[in-house]
Amino acid sequence: MGQNETPEWNGEKIRVLAADSTRMSSQLLAESLSQDRQFDVTGIEPRGSYILDAVAQKKPHVVLVSSTLENSATLGFDITRRVRAGHPQTKVVLLMDASTPGTVVEAFRSGAQGVFSRTESSKALARCICCVYEGQVWASSEELRYVLEALRESQPVRMLNSRGEAILSKREQEVVRCVAEGLSNRDIATRLKLTEHTVKNYLFRIFDKLGVSSRVEVVLYVFRTRNEAVGAPEIDSPHVSEPRPAVVGKAVKPMAKVGPNAVDPARELTRRTRM
Questions:
Q1: Mean pLDDT of the chain
Q2: Is 172 exposed, middle or buried (CB count within 10 Å of its CB: 0-12, 13-18, 19+)?
Q3: Does the reported pTM lie above 0.70?
Protein backbone atom coordinates (compact mmCIF):
# COMPACT_ATOMS: atom_id res chain seq x y z
CA MET A 1 0.00 0.00 0.00
CA GLY A 2 1.42 3.41 -0.95
CA GLN A 3 1.95 6.16 1.59
CA ASN A 4 -0.97 8.20 0.21
CA GLU A 5 -3.43 5.33 0.15
CA THR A 6 -6.11 4.62 2.74
CA PRO A 7 -6.74 1.01 3.82
CA GLU A 8 -9.64 -0.49 1.90
CA TRP A 9 -12.95 -0.12 3.72
CA ASN A 10 -14.31 -3.52 4.70
CA GLY A 11 -17.87 -2.39 5.44
CA GLU A 12 -17.51 -1.98 9.22
CA LYS A 13 -17.79 1.63 10.28
CA ILE A 14 -14.95 2.93 12.38
CA ARG A 15 -16.39 4.52 15.52
CA VAL A 16 -14.60 7.79 16.23
CA LEU A 17 -14.89 10.32 19.06
CA ALA A 18 -13.64 13.83 18.29
CA ALA A 19 -12.66 16.05 21.21
CA ASP A 20 -10.90 19.08 19.78
CA SER A 21 -9.87 22.13 21.79
CA THR A 22 -13.38 23.70 21.68
CA ARG A 23 -16.89 22.31 21.39
CA MET A 24 -17.42 24.04 18.04
CA SER A 25 -14.18 22.73 16.56
CA SER A 26 -15.10 19.24 17.80
CA GLN A 27 -18.43 19.43 15.95
CA LEU A 28 -16.82 20.83 12.79
CA LEU A 29 -14.23 18.07 12.87
CA ALA A 30 -16.94 15.44 13.31
CA GLU A 31 -19.00 16.86 10.45
CA SER A 32 -15.99 16.89 8.15
CA LEU A 33 -15.03 13.29 8.91
CA SER A 34 -18.64 12.09 8.71
CA GLN A 35 -18.62 12.83 5.00
CA ASP A 36 -16.51 9.70 4.66
CA ARG A 37 -18.89 6.73 4.79
CA GLN A 38 -16.41 4.49 6.61
CA PHE A 39 -16.59 6.64 9.76
CA ASP A 40 -19.21 6.95 12.47
CA VAL A 41 -18.07 10.14 14.18
CA THR A 42 -19.34 11.88 17.31
CA GLY A 43 -18.13 15.32 18.30
CA ILE A 44 -18.10 15.76 22.07
CA GLU A 45 -17.55 18.43 24.71
CA PRO A 46 -13.75 18.71 25.11
CA ARG A 47 -13.70 18.28 28.86
CA GLY A 48 -11.86 15.49 30.63
CA SER A 49 -14.86 14.00 32.41
CA TYR A 50 -17.02 14.18 29.26
CA ILE A 51 -14.38 12.42 27.19
CA LEU A 52 -13.91 9.59 29.67
CA ASP A 53 -17.68 9.10 30.05
CA ALA A 54 -18.16 9.10 26.26
CA VAL A 55 -15.41 6.51 25.78
CA ALA A 56 -17.03 4.25 28.38
CA GLN A 57 -20.51 4.60 26.85
CA LYS A 58 -19.81 4.61 23.12
CA LYS A 59 -16.76 2.31 23.07
CA PRO A 60 -15.09 4.02 20.09
CA HIS A 61 -12.38 2.41 18.04
CA VAL A 62 -10.41 5.67 17.82
CA VAL A 63 -10.46 8.83 19.93
CA LEU A 64 -9.17 12.11 18.50
CA VAL A 65 -8.23 14.36 21.39
CA SER A 66 -6.57 17.74 21.46
CA SER A 67 -3.30 17.89 23.37
CA THR A 68 -4.61 21.15 24.87
CA LEU A 69 -7.87 20.86 26.82
CA GLU A 70 -9.58 23.27 29.21
CA ASN A 71 -6.74 25.76 28.72
CA SER A 72 -4.25 23.17 29.94
CA ALA A 73 -1.32 22.20 27.74
CA THR A 74 -0.97 18.85 29.50
CA LEU A 75 -4.54 17.64 30.13
CA GLY A 76 -4.77 15.94 26.72
CA PHE A 77 -1.82 13.71 27.62
CA ASP A 78 -3.38 12.83 30.98
CA ILE A 79 -6.69 11.96 29.31
CA THR A 80 -4.81 9.75 26.84
CA ARG A 81 -3.22 7.83 29.73
CA ARG A 82 -6.58 7.36 31.41
CA VAL A 83 -8.32 6.25 28.23
CA ARG A 84 -5.59 3.72 27.48
CA ALA A 85 -5.53 2.46 31.07
CA GLY A 86 -9.29 1.98 31.27
CA HIS A 87 -9.94 0.97 27.66
CA PRO A 88 -6.75 -0.53 26.19
CA GLN A 89 -8.59 -1.62 23.05
CA THR A 90 -9.32 2.03 22.20
CA LYS A 91 -6.72 3.82 20.08
CA VAL A 92 -5.90 7.50 20.71
CA VAL A 93 -4.63 10.09 18.25
CA LEU A 94 -3.42 13.34 19.77
CA LEU A 95 -4.15 16.50 17.77
CA MET A 96 -1.13 18.78 18.03
CA ASP A 97 -0.84 22.51 17.43
CA ALA A 98 2.92 22.09 17.12
CA SER A 99 4.97 18.89 16.95
CA THR A 100 7.86 19.77 19.24
CA PRO A 101 10.24 17.08 20.48
CA GLY A 102 8.83 17.28 24.01
CA THR A 103 5.18 17.04 23.02
CA VAL A 104 5.74 14.20 20.55
CA VAL A 105 7.71 12.10 23.03
CA GLU A 106 5.16 12.77 25.76
CA ALA A 107 2.32 11.80 23.41
CA PHE A 108 3.76 8.34 22.80
CA ARG A 109 4.71 7.94 26.45
CA SER A 110 1.08 8.66 27.28
CA GLY A 111 0.01 5.75 25.13
CA ALA A 112 -1.08 7.52 21.94
CA GLN A 113 -1.03 5.46 18.75
CA GLY A 114 -0.49 8.53 16.64
CA VAL A 115 0.20 12.27 16.62
CA PHE A 116 -1.47 14.47 14.03
CA SER A 117 -0.52 18.04 13.18
CA ARG A 118 -3.38 20.46 12.58
CA THR A 119 -1.53 21.76 9.53
CA GLU A 120 -2.25 18.48 7.72
CA SER A 121 -5.29 17.97 5.48
CA SER A 122 -8.59 16.30 6.36
CA LYS A 123 -7.72 13.58 3.84
CA ALA A 124 -4.51 12.90 5.76
CA LEU A 125 -6.51 12.73 8.99
CA ALA A 126 -8.80 10.11 7.44
CA ARG A 127 -5.73 8.03 6.51
CA CYS A 128 -4.37 8.51 10.01
CA ILE A 129 -7.58 7.19 11.61
CA CYS A 130 -7.72 4.18 9.29
CA CYS A 131 -4.10 3.25 9.88
CA VAL A 132 -4.35 3.61 13.66
CA TYR A 133 -7.55 1.56 13.58
CA GLU A 134 -5.63 -1.13 11.71
CA GLY A 135 -3.08 -1.19 14.54
CA GLN A 136 -0.31 0.92 13.04
CA VAL A 137 1.43 3.98 14.47
CA TRP A 138 1.07 7.38 12.79
CA ALA A 139 4.05 9.73 12.86
CA SER A 140 6.19 11.69 10.45
CA SER A 141 9.88 11.02 9.87
CA GLU A 142 10.73 14.12 11.89
CA GLU A 143 8.47 13.04 14.77
CA LEU A 144 10.01 9.58 14.70
CA ARG A 145 13.43 11.23 14.90
CA TYR A 146 12.32 13.02 18.10
CA VAL A 147 11.34 9.71 19.69
CA LEU A 148 14.58 8.01 18.69
CA GLU A 149 16.69 10.89 19.96
CA ALA A 150 14.86 10.84 23.31
CA LEU A 151 15.39 7.10 23.41
CA ARG A 152 19.14 7.43 22.94
CA GLU A 153 19.39 10.07 25.67
CA SER A 154 17.27 8.27 28.25
CA GLN A 155 18.47 5.70 30.73
CA PRO A 156 17.84 2.11 29.62
CA VAL A 157 14.99 0.21 31.22
CA ARG A 158 16.37 -2.17 33.83
CA MET A 159 15.67 -5.81 32.99
CA LEU A 160 17.28 -7.07 36.22
CA ASN A 161 16.41 -6.23 39.81
CA SER A 162 18.92 -5.30 42.53
CA ARG A 163 19.69 -8.99 43.10
CA GLY A 164 20.52 -9.53 39.44
CA GLU A 165 17.31 -11.47 38.81
CA ALA A 166 15.25 -11.04 35.66
CA ILE A 167 12.34 -8.63 36.10
CA LEU A 168 10.29 -10.37 33.44
CA SER A 169 9.34 -14.02 33.60
CA LYS A 170 10.27 -16.32 30.74
CA ARG A 171 6.72 -16.14 29.38
CA GLU A 172 6.68 -12.33 29.65
CA GLN A 173 9.95 -12.20 27.72
CA GLU A 174 8.36 -14.35 25.01
CA VAL A 175 5.44 -11.90 24.82
CA VAL A 176 7.88 -8.97 24.54
CA ARG A 177 9.67 -10.68 21.65
CA CYS A 178 6.34 -11.23 19.90
CA VAL A 179 5.38 -7.56 20.37
CA ALA A 180 8.75 -6.54 18.93
CA GLU A 181 8.03 -8.71 15.88
CA GLY A 182 4.85 -6.70 15.33
CA LEU A 183 2.41 -9.49 16.21
CA SER A 184 -1.13 -8.63 17.27
CA ASN A 185 -2.60 -9.98 20.52
CA ARG A 186 -4.41 -12.64 18.51
CA ASP A 187 -1.20 -13.69 16.74
CA ILE A 188 0.68 -13.79 20.04
CA ALA A 189 -2.05 -15.93 21.56
CA THR A 190 -1.85 -18.37 18.64
CA ARG A 191 1.94 -18.62 18.73
CA LEU A 192 2.16 -19.08 22.51
CA LYS A 193 -1.01 -21.16 22.79
CA LEU A 194 -2.71 -18.66 25.10
CA THR A 195 -6.02 -16.83 25.09
CA GLU A 196 -6.13 -13.19 23.97
CA HIS A 197 -7.30 -12.24 27.46
CA THR A 198 -4.20 -13.88 28.96
CA VAL A 199 -1.98 -12.03 26.48
CA LYS A 200 -3.54 -8.71 27.54
CA ASN A 201 -2.91 -9.56 31.18
CA TYR A 202 0.72 -10.32 30.38
CA LEU A 203 1.05 -6.98 28.58
CA PHE A 204 -0.37 -5.06 31.55
CA ARG A 205 2.16 -6.73 33.86
CA ILE A 206 5.00 -6.07 31.41
CA PHE A 207 4.05 -2.37 31.16
CA ASP A 208 3.99 -2.14 34.95
CA LYS A 209 7.33 -3.90 35.44
CA LEU A 210 9.15 -1.91 32.75
CA GLY A 211 7.55 1.38 33.72
CA VAL A 212 6.11 1.98 30.26
CA SER A 213 2.57 2.72 29.13
CA SER A 214 2.27 1.42 25.59
CA ARG A 215 3.34 -1.24 23.11
CA VAL A 216 5.22 1.48 21.25
CA GLU A 217 7.56 1.97 24.21
CA VAL A 218 8.11 -1.79 24.47
CA VAL A 219 9.07 -1.91 20.79
CA LEU A 220 11.33 1.12 21.19
CA TYR A 221 13.04 -0.53 24.15
CA VAL A 222 13.76 -3.64 22.10
CA PHE A 223 15.00 -1.48 19.25
CA ARG A 224 17.30 0.43 21.60
CA THR A 225 18.90 -2.67 23.07
CA ARG A 226 19.55 -4.00 19.56
CA ASN A 227 20.80 -0.62 18.37
CA GLU A 228 23.22 -0.35 21.28
CA ALA A 229 24.55 -3.79 20.43
CA VAL A 230 25.44 -2.92 16.82
CA GLY A 231 26.23 0.79 17.24
CA ALA A 232 23.99 3.76 16.54
CA PRO A 233 23.84 4.94 12.92
CA GLU A 234 24.84 8.42 11.92
CA ILE A 235 21.88 10.81 11.67
CA ASP A 236 21.64 13.51 9.03
CA SER A 237 21.24 17.15 10.00
CA PRO A 238 17.71 17.93 11.24
CA HIS A 239 17.59 20.82 8.78
CA VAL A 240 17.43 18.46 5.80
CA SER A 241 13.98 18.71 4.21
CA GLU A 242 12.16 15.45 3.58
CA PRO A 243 8.60 14.52 2.56
CA ARG A 244 6.30 13.62 5.44
CA PRO A 245 5.45 9.91 5.47
CA ALA A 246 1.84 8.91 5.98
CA VAL A 247 2.39 6.39 8.72
CA VAL A 248 4.95 4.47 10.70
CA GLY A 249 4.02 0.95 9.76
CA LYS A 250 4.44 1.47 6.02
CA ALA A 251 7.47 2.03 3.84
CA VAL A 252 9.20 5.16 5.13
CA LYS A 253 12.09 6.82 3.37
CA PRO A 254 14.98 6.45 5.83
CA MET A 255 16.51 9.57 7.37
CA ALA A 256 19.71 7.90 8.51
CA LYS A 257 22.93 7.12 6.67
CA VAL A 258 23.15 3.40 7.21
CA GLY A 259 26.07 1.11 6.55
CA PRO A 260 25.53 -2.49 5.40
CA ASN A 261 25.62 -3.89 8.95
CA ALA A 262 23.93 -1.01 10.80
CA VAL A 263 20.34 -0.67 11.95
CA ASP A 264 18.19 1.85 10.10
CA PRO A 265 15.94 3.27 12.85
CA ALA A 266 13.10 4.38 10.58
CA ARG A 267 12.85 1.06 8.75
CA GLU A 268 13.34 -0.98 11.92
CA LEU A 269 10.59 0.82 13.83
CA THR A 270 8.41 0.82 10.73
CA ARG A 271 8.68 -2.96 10.47
CA ARG A 272 8.03 -3.59 14.14
CA THR A 273 5.22 -1.22 15.13
CA ARG A 274 2.26 -3.13 13.74
CA MET A 275 0.09 -3.61 16.83
A1: 76
A2: middle
A3: no
